[in-house]
Amino acid sequence: MGQPGAAAPPAPPERGEARAAAGATKKQVVVVGGGFAGRAAQRAVAEAARGWFGPRVGLEVTLVDAKGYFEYTPALLRCLVEPAACKRALLPHPKAVQGTAVGFATAVVAGERGEGGEEKEEGQKAGRAVATAVRLSDGRELPCDYCIWAQGAVYGALAPGGAAGGAGLSLRPRAASLAERARELHEAHEGLLLASTVAVIGGGACGVELAAEIAGHFPGSKSILLLSRAEALLAHMPGDAQRYAEAWLKKRGVQVLLGCEVLGRTLTADGRHRVATSVGGDLTVDLVFDCSGNRFDVPAAVGGLPGVAAGRGGLGADARLRMAGLANVFVCGDVLDAPFPKTAFTADVTGRLAGRNAVHALLGRPLLRYPEDVCHGADRPPALECVSLYKYDGVFQFNSLVVPGLLAGGLKAFIERMQLAVAAGGCAATWSWRAIEDANVWLGRHLFLEGFVSA
């Protein structure tokens, strides 16, 4: 019992108040983009916050995405011919802030030190510009100590008009909700059903897979043209993969035009598409799909910042993935301007590294370099890609090794199942997929290197 007249001890704070006070002392990491790279970065930061691989770090991570759902991009082409596939390709975003990031609030720092008192990396020293908040298009600002920019690529689109008579399908979604996106895909499918002649522009992985989906799902019922500016399909892959894909498509009636540059497109009076080419003259078709390469819709407020390097290849960054011009912003995924192919595999690897580097920067630890410090000293990530040729066929590349046929098709289906299970938050799938990726990085350093030159 206390002494008479003694002051009573202060009442413990309410649970919500204690939580708010604890949150106020935490560093804030904002991840922009909810695709492969953004989610990998978010997981890496969250693991540090929970102390899974060391002492618990006082930080919070916020994922920002323009849409309210996760979209497994490689499955979109199947959704176009089979709308029922939307059920597995579109998943709700867990705990994400929906909004479009358009820029940063910035400041010049006077100097910081890590939690252990060590001076931070060169990019964090006094006099360098940093982002203090991420600005959204609706006027909101999300305060950040570190930001990870994982904006994806803007892919090709179904041209307006044509047989569909509508706005068409964008492989970078416009829909803000999962239901709206499923409706977009269904409407694009209806337009494809009405088309007799289809032109696919682009001979990379997206163009080849789309032509294969249409040829496989509508055997003999549609005239399909595949136009490639390069002299080979899948020009970034070994010759065996190129020849196999071309032979597969031609066997199913796809007309492949190589070394064919598209000079322009116009609509005819009856709503069809006239495509001017460098080798075949003018082609008139019902529907056009533009799969001619990645484009990056970097906001002008970001690309125009002093020192920020934004070009056709995306956003420039140093070897530690720090954005050129902003010391506390890391870049990963498709938008990272790096001299390596942009694949789901490299998006995962760079996203995970960006998350780890944000934590290292917060703690004053040395930052890791890409690709040397994550690829066991190699100066390039392993070339790991699987291109499907409809449901049961494909070509798989691991450095110089090419595996065509049913095995490649099975691998593609396995990758899809694993990625979707990870996106759904499955713990076993997440750790299994990480082990597979780590094994692939290690094996890629040692196997099938003869004659391998990265694109």
Can you give a write-up of this model?
The chain has about 450 residues and is α/β, with parallel strands linked by helices. The protein has helices at about 15-25, 35-50, 75-80, 85-90, 180-195, 205-215, 240-250, 300-305, 345-365, 405-425, 425-445, and strands at about 25-30, 60-65, 70, 90, 95-100, 100-110, 130-135, 140-145, 145-150, 195-200, 225-230, 255-260, 260-265, 275, 280-285, 285-290, 310, 315, 330, 385-390, 395-400, 400-405. It folds into 3 domains: about 25-155 and about 295-365, FAD/NAD(P)-binding domain, CATH 3.50.50; about 180-290, 3-Layer(bba) Sandwich (FAD/NAD(P)-binding domain); about 385-445, no CATH class. It is built from 11 helices and 22 strands. The strands form 7 sheets. Strands 5-2-1-9-19 form a 5-stranded parallel beta sheet, covered by helices on one side. It has a 4-stranded parallel beta sheet with strand order 12-11-10-16, covered by helices on one side. α2 runs parallel beside α9 (about 345-365) and α10 crosses α11. It is globular, with a radius of gyration of 24 Å. About 40% of the residues are buried.
Q: Estimate percent helicity.
A: 25-40%
Q: What is the CA-CA span between the terminal residues?
A: 77 Å
Largest sheet: 5 strands, parallel
Number of strands: 22
> Do you know the CATH architecture of the largest domain?
3-Layer(bba) Sandwich
Instruction: Give me the oligomer status.
Output: single chain
Briefly note the structural class of the backbone.
alpha/beta
Rg value: 24 Å
Shape: globular
- CATH class of the largest domain reads Alpha Beta
Tally of distinct domains:
3
User: Helical stretch count?
Assistant: 11
Residue ranges: pLDDT <50 for 5 or more in a row? 1-10, 12-23, 112-123, 158-169
